[in-house]
What does this fold into?
Amino acid sequence: MKLPRRVPWATSAELDTVCTWIYADENDADAKTAAVNRLSAWRAITPLPHALEATLSLLSSVRLDHEFRSAQQPRRHSDVPNLKYTIALSVRQAYATAIVRLVNGLVDPLQLGAFARSIAAIAAQIGFPQWLVELRHAATHEELPSLELLRAGAKEALAWLLHNYFLPTLSASSNNEQSSPVIHLSSPSPIFKQYKYLLKAITRDASLRTQYKPDLTKVLRDVERWVGEAKVAASAETFSGLGAGEQGEVDDENERWALERLCEALLERGGLVPVSGKKRLVQNSKTLPVIPSSLVAIWSPLLSALRSTHSSFLSVLVSSITKSLLFRAPALNNDSLQKTDLSYELCLAAWAAWCVNQSDAASIEPPLREGATSLRREDVVVGLVTALCARECDKNTGDRQGARALIDLLVHEHPYLKDVADSLSLASKSGLKPGQKWLDKDVLVMEERLQSLISSVSSVSPLDDESDQIIVLDEGLSTPQDDLPKGWTRVPSRLWKACPIGVFNHC
Amino acid sequence: MLSAIAARKAAQAVKLAAQHQPPQPPLEKVQLAIEDSVSDSERLETIFQSQKSKRKPLASSEVQARKRRRKKASKSENLQTRYYEQNTEDSLIESLEKEPKDIGDESNTDSEGEGEGEGEGEAHFIGDDGRSELDCLFQGHRKVKRPWSPSQPPPNSSDEEAAYEPGSSMLAAEEPLVIPPQYPRQQDAGFKRIRTLSFTPKLDKNIFHVDNCDFGIFVGRSGTLIALSEDDTIALIGVYSMTVLQGTVSFMGSDLYASPTISHTVFAPRCSPIPIIKALAVDTSVTSDNGLNISGKIAQLISPHCTLVFFEEISTGVEDLGKVCKTFEGTFDAEAYGESILRLRSAKMILSLSRSMQPFQTPASWQIAFASLSKASSPNSDILLERQVLVAMVRGQKRTGKSYLARTILNRLLGCYRRVAFLECDLGQTEFTPPGFVSLNLIDRPMFGPPFTHPLLPYNSHYIGSASPLNSPSHYLSSIRALMQTYKIDLQYVSPEDEVLGSDGSRIDDVIPLVVNTMGWTKGLGADLARQIEEAVEPTHIFSIQNPSGDFETGMETMKVEMQTLNGSGNNHQVFEVEPISVGIQSTRHSAADWRTISLISYFHSIPSMSQTYLLSTSVQHHNDFSFISRSAPLYSWDCRLPLVARSPYAVAPNVALDSVILIGAGSEDVVPSEIGRVLNGALVAIVAYQPDYTEISPSQAWRGIPYSQGADPPDPLTSRCIGLALIRGVSQLTPFSPPLSSENTDGDTLHVLTPLPPWILATSGARCFVKGEIELPVWGMLDFREIERDGARHDIDGIPYLQWSKTEAAGAERRRVRRNLMRRGQM
It folds into this structure.
């Protein structure tokens, strides 16, 4: 089950109060002090959302600045605290730290790829003011910016937090139908197009290899960057506010989502499968489809690069291919298209077989890596066979020649798998056929199974009566009140009603 | 189902093999036997079957499997027929297991389904099934090539001792002893796990149900007697009491000798390595009559050469912790895995270990280190002759099995010593207390089970308040030094007046050795802290677990028993480099945070029994008369009938009951007095007692009766002691501008406090200080599990204060997340 998150406020009304203290009147120093005190208290209760933590440190800098300024005016010297040792540098440092931490904290959760994306790019994606990013850079690596600039930066940052954290949070809790911000995700196809162009040139003329090397590296990085962006988009789609322990799982899901989108683009015509029907397969091989070696030479560098950074890539690719082979709607157009579709499917099948072979070759070496999404020939075959049989049963949706070809490709050098595939398809054929009727016998078998399931569940319960003994033990331990230290009394359990932690029960 | 058949077959095959051939490496044969016994047709069936039961929990892909399970949950419910078809054991477990995880996941599944196209094919396709069986076969093949079989049990410690040069004095040895190179190589051996258990249960042949026992001291007790032949292995899941009646068994790294008066309580949940009971050879030359008078029909059936173990069911309530914290739900439940042939309600016997279960096995290098330890504890060892008390320290990186090693050392020492002290320095994964404590515990019996199954009151402890000493290194160190001082003054040498315990003869009881567990933070500041701890502890033996990611080849070469003599100080200690244990499964299924959660939940639901008083400082004992309590009574039990929200608390008047309230942790200095009620509301606080003569603390500011002093230092460990943790579940007034106080309590707030600490501890300790650190009550502890069970935990239980169910899309709404593995472009 999905756990809620712990927040320091009892209701969002309390957050609203703090928001009012901060933003209602810019010059109300007392309200700002109240906000700082409240946020400091919240911080001691539970780790704050990053936006609130950033707000706290911005506010405390603003307050320090305010005190510093009033201390510099001799007339009001009497009623301000002694700031003898505060120099402008302290104030600048306070501002600078607040801004640096704000930007880092906003950007870091979105660094989802293996490689760092530029902060400016991420900031642009979430609509964060560019000049604050520059201010961050200056404050971190260059001359510490001037007080004037930092003041303006803090003001802008607080305004940005109001519009991007406080208002959405408060309105979300009052009105759940809040539209989530759409994070833009471009198609990776142009990158692939450029990649293909480069590789075609290299494979035709090996002497160009060194010349094009920088370009090729750049394209591969572009792909990697695209995956990073897609992960950000994925985290917007899938819920990521899970408990801390499940963060890794969420990352995995995001990565899978991103890779699936990538594979979709790869499977388009002009991707792994050339546009021209003639280039798709080796012409003379009659029985099993084979991809031409020139095609392999073009795509294998990209595939192996992706695979080295994303261990699950091959399995995602194969799963995308099989999905496409199994469930692609039969071509509605005329016959000629249907025909080219066949070679498209066969080419995809050949690619999938290529992936499985690659994965097999690699998996001999290292032992099962913990959690690695490994691709297994057996799983693919069995999955395909069962899916095919199930399909056959409900309706006749074309021949699915591609899928059949893939099975043949996968099993033809593995006689024992061939047996499995054959027996599986036999088994499911002998199972329920469309015309076959339900027999009472079948229901009986199922009932029997249900019974055994229920009985094994219910036999757990007898332990319950044991808990009565614990009651006795409990009562035995709770000695009379006078044994308790001074100031401690026990609230009688008969007066006690359950109420949430943090709510005082006046009983 | 299939695996059970295979296991039985395998076991039979072993028996056959054992009859015909000398039983050289028995367990290796098991693997081969599986291979032989599974014919081709069965192999096909295996694949087919397991394909159907696609919810098989698997070790290597546990994480993904879980993920997929969640995705598939709704689909499988639509496919009713398939659900019924899954009649295998594994699917049963899965169906039991998955319920809680899927609760409230519907919305998620929908959106995920879209991305998957028509999920049916997908589900088949990514199926991870059949892997265990196939792997079994493949591994069998590979195995043949390797001469050394890691599944072969390591020689027991007595052999080890013989192999050693007994004359070489431990403290004076000049030459480092290098362990012979035929050592297992962990890399490819993968520390081959036991998968099959060799014991074949046959009712009334080697398993006997005993009702109202009529022999010896067991009169009136009911249980199950098991007769094991040499090298038989058996494993149970659940909670059970185990008594060795005849022979010796090897259990969780310790050897348990026949001792009818000692029953061991064992907690064997699936979430931690499964303890394997292995019968060792029975020494028939020693026919000791230990009050065992087995009568009647059983006596005739039992050979004097077999090992006899008596199992009894016990009810502790620990199983119900999974009800509160669903991440551990059903972890003691072996119904679907186990055989009920034992007729015990709290435990089931398992016939083979599925991939999701890891057996508790100690690497061979541990055994070697243990051997030297038991040598040091033998009555005429040098260490004892020099009146030096054994102090064993465990160090190593996180996730290398430090706490397993420390616990195993503790259990082994309890075979030789009457009592053993345990110093916990690992704040994140504490053994006996909730997280955030450094503690000194006195232990008088072996602890078999993961840490959350033995919440003990500390002999002395100090609250650091965080899962890491990062923010308060000096307080952390001074706390450890203070505990070492307590150990040296109060515990190390038992004064004659304390020896009213009555000696049991066989075990040393005039000194108390110490086991020290350290933290896994071994880099940077952590390394510096570790060095200072070592100086404070002055260990005689150091068990250093190697870095698992390091180069194992070089690791093997340096694996030796080396001697380090520090110049001049005379500070001798022996260092053992030992292999890390593979905690693979544990680390994927439960994170360190999960273990902290269950530890806290277990603590607040525990009921410390009066018998713990013998393990507490004498000041507590002198205040009370506990002579009526049996020493061997259980130390604790659990009560999970009510969630924390429904428990009646103590009402504490802070102005009367408390001298000071202190906040520790980074940033807590900024909490102003008017906000203290808010901060304490729902907080976990440590209850701290000052020494009677300590009057220095005088809170400068009190807020509505709460004696809070802003920015105060944590209590000085030398003059204070922490007795435990409490939850302030409610504060009467939170807002500064509240209406006048109620008539009965005119001068301050009321705090509603929940704590498992028994009143006699609260009363005798004189604890008048609350310290709040960074450790929080887990969210599971704030929920009412009865509501979750009733309503199916939909998201609409909104309205619980301080919890937020809905996701906000706002920027920066998440807690800060740190990435340390981010690479730059140039690194590609």
Remarks:
- The first helix of chain B runs from residue 2 to 20.
- Chain B touches chain A through 160 residues (CB under 8 Å).
- Chain B is about 30% helix and 15% strand.
